[in-house]
Amino acid sequence: MPFEGLIGFWADSLSLSIGIWVVILMTLAYGARAWAHRLIHETARFTSLLARYMARAVRRATVRLRRWYLRYLRGVEARRLEGRVERVYRDIHGRVNRDLGGFPALQQRIHRHIDALEHDYHSAHDQVPEEPGWMRTANALAAAPPKADPRVGQVLEEIHDSLARSGREALEEYRRASQSRMEILKGLLPAWREVGDHIQQMERVVRGVSDQTKNLDRMVGQYRRLAQGGVPARTLTLASFGTLAVSGLVLVLLGLCAAVLFFLVVPPMEQVLGGAPGSSVAPWAVASLVLLLLLGGGMMTEARQVSRIIPAFGAMDPRGRQWAFTVGLMLVVLTVLLCATLAASRDFYVAQGDALHMLLEGEPELLWPGVDWLSTLTRLALGGLLPLPLMLIALPLQAFMQSVAVVGVGFVLLCLSLMETLLGGFALGARLSERLLKALYELLIFPPLLMERGYRAWCRKRSTDPRESSSARMPAELLTLPEVPSGRKGPGASNHDKP
After folding, report:
1. Are residues 243 and 217 in the same domain?
2. Could you tell me which of 362, 329, 363, 369 has the C-alpha nearest to residue 347?
3. Is 271 in the same domain as 388?
4. Is 237 exposed, middle or buried (0-12, 13-18, 19+ CB in 10 A)?
5. How confident is the model over 242-276, as pLDDT tens digits?
6. C or N: which end of the chain has fewer Cβ atoms within 10 Å?
7. Each residue of 202-226: b (16+ CB within 10 Å) or e?
8. Closest of 460, 475, 441, 484 to residue 44, by C-alpha
9. How many Å apart are CA 303 and CA 83, to the nearest integer?
10. What highest taxon heads this organism's lineage (predicted)?
């Protein structure tokens, strides 16, 4: 039966049929109200519990992932601090050996200069000349009472002349001594300057070592806090975005270098290896050369502990790391030489092919085509320079991997937190939607509900009003006959019932 026929099943009028169907459906919905409410309640409860369990599972996964993330961040920060501590320690060691290694010799030189200065200083002291012996005689004669003897005056005049002459000689001697002392003091100035320069140099070295030691102590304190379970700095997460962008750009540039090197070396490699045009192994050979170059560069950086992608190199002894560095260096050197040689020989193979083509065409005079040495040298330089950045690919690769892990796990944690919030809100919405769905269901069947409410109100009113209840009971009492007690007869009793 089509839909129009189903609607017009009850009457010829479409509106009347629709009204009858609405009444039927509303009656059925009213009759199933209790089961519908129960279905809505159970559905909302099931949905809410399911969302809550999912939110709890997401929360547990977030907690476990956050713990792993913090451990990973501690490991990254610890490796970064280890590298910085190692570099600072090497700087301190080199500075102490370079600047403070000659401290004993410098100390001896300073002591030697100080002894010379002390000797010159004592030599520059004022030395008072000794008093001559005849001064006591002159003092005794001067203290004696004057007499009229002329010989005494003559002696005194001679004494006066001697004193004057001795004074002049003493003054000249003092002047010469003062001049020599001034010369000695002038000679002290370069020694004092040299001692001052040595002391200032020593002070600068000690101050630099002290600053580096304080920096080393601060980094060791950070490493100790990380080892004890401290939270890494937020700057590590923020810096990972910049590191990710820079390392990704460097990897793209290295990929371009590898592609240029590949297409530069493939044609001469095809000429060397030969083979059919469609089945040449030259691309595979060039790819193997590039992989050997990457392997050699990785072995060099891992052996020197510059990169730490492969933990096995960290467990090797110094002799094994030196052996790995030597092998990697040999691989890099051989690969670079081979790539440069193949790139430079491209023009020669092209010239050889042109000559062979001219010979096959039957040229009477076969001349060897010229070689463009500028392009040859350019290819030689490219073949030698392009492999060099590829040998250091382990450094940006390690930075890129660490940054991807930090940024990616942080993004996953953010998504899990948002999912947990959405699931919690969905669970709350499911509980709240129960009342809304019940209200909408009752809105659809509001006419029977209004009739039910009116009937219930009328029943309550009947039960509370005694007059209405007695008047309502009167028809029933009138319809029932009174009971006749035993031993009595009613007015309508017949005579044949008598004994």
Report:
1. no
2. 369
3. yes
4. middle
5. 888 999 999 999 999 999 999 888 888 887 777 55
6. C
7. beebeeebeebeeebeebeebbeeb
8. 441
9. 14
10. Bacteria
Hey, what are 95's tokens? Answer: 């500075």
In angstroms, the CA 349 to CA 339 distance is: 15
**pLDDT tens column, 288-319:** 999 999 999 989 988 888 888 887 887 788 88
Q: How is 172-238 classified by DSSP, letter by letter? A: HHHHHHHHHHHHHHHHHHHHHHHHHHHHHHHHHHHHHHHHHHHHHHHHHHHHHHHHTTPPPPHHHHH
User: Per-residue pLDDT tens for 160-206?
Assistant: 677 777 777 777 777 777 777 677 667 666 767 777 777 777 778 77
Q: Which of 218, 208, 217 is nearest to 95 (CA)?
A: 208
Q: Which two tokens stand for residue 448?
A: 């029977």
Provide the 3-class DSSP secondary structure of residue 319.
Answer: helix
Q: Which domain holds residue 212?
A: 100-227
Residues 147, 213, single domain; the answer is: yes
- CA-to-CA separations, 88 to 211, 232, 395, in angstroms, rounded: 11, 21, 20
Q: Which residues contact 361 (CB under 8 A, 6 or more apart)?
A: none
Tally of structural domains, the chain: 3
Q: Are residues 340 and 249 in the same domain?
A: yes
